[in-house]
Amino acid sequence: MASKxxxxxAIKIDGKAIAQTIRSEIASEVRHLSQKYGKVPxxxxxxxxxxxxxxxxxxxxxxxxxEVGIKSFDVDLPEQVPEAELISKVHELNEHPDVHGILVQxxxxxxxxxxxxxxxxxxxxxxxxxxxLNIGKLAMxxxxxxxxxxxxxxxxxxxxxxxxxxxxxxxxVLCCDNFxxxxxxxxxxxxxxxxxxxxxxxxxxxxxxxxxxxxxLPVALLLLKADATVTIVHSHTHDPESIIREADIxxxxxxxxxMIKGSxxxxxxxxxxxxxxxxxxxxxxxxxxxxxxxxxxxxCKVAGWITPVPGGVGPMTVAMLLKNTLEGAKQVLxxxxxx
Length: 339
Fold this sequence. Notes:
This protein is of the alpha/beta class. Among the domains are: 36-125, Leucine Dehydrogenase, chain A, domain 1 (Rossmann fold, 3-Layer(aba) Sandwich), CATH 3.40.50; 183-316, Rossmann fold, CATH 3.40.50. The protein has helices at 4-7, 15-37, 52-68, 83-95, 114-119, 132-139, 150-166, 184-196, 216-225, 240-246, 296-300, 313-337, and strands at residues 11-12, 42-48, 71-77, 101-104, 172-176, 205-209, 229-233, 249-252, 270-274, 277-280, 288-291, 305-306. Strands 1-12-9-5-8-6-7 form a seven-stranded parallel β-sheet, sandwiched between helices. Strands 3-2-4 form a three-stranded parallel β-sheet, sandwiched between helices. It has a two-stranded antiparallel ribbon with strand order 10-11. β2, α3 and β3 form a beta-alpha-beta unit. Mean pLDDT is 79; it is low at 161-199.
């Protein structure tokens, strides 16, 4: 007779399908804004240089804008653009009345100070969630940022949407590589849904693997705000495996292919893997395939939930960017109508 562990098969969380549902909701709201105010949300996407990966990400975001009716303002600058010129362009976008969100694609060329550029983005238009004031407010008890980085927001939505369907998981393992942002009313609403389902992050042990400004740090702060007990594992942590194995919530943002093994995961845990790593695969036309930070095949035999790579958190990250742009536009258009 097969053991329970052998019988276990993780439920796949379909981030692509959930993201499409969110996009449909966004498109409906955009149409409503257009009918009511005669305006639609506007997102300015700034890219510097010709990195193929950055161009791919930017094109995906611009295409997503078009699909939901958000106006895309395209700013393409050469690799050697002076830092002052880039900042001047950001200032122009800050003042543009039809731009409700500004995204500067990272990384920037080495001669440009990323922090300096991101700080120049108006906090009201910081839909990528990287402005120091947004991160600072996230870190402070009793303060709420206007926006959070997109992928952490995406992971939270994935968990909360699927938990409504299952109503039985009490342990979470979230594994990710680059992301997120979140509004207070969304966080409060999701936690309320979890509570009504008998599931709570409050008091759970959370381990964040990685401490990047893009993923690890904001996710850790977000979980801390939700009253989880948070530990951050990084490159200098001794015996990370034992720490991860004891956690109820694990955020893996290490950027290492298949780092998290099945033996590292608590039985029945939820695994949200947002890592995107290319590994050699001669069977593929491209010569490589994409894998996450988790060994998917092993994890499927242990976890209760799992996101695939690709098709998990990635699509959700773009959906959250669109959502934040929409919310930014709603705030502006509503305030203008009251004048």
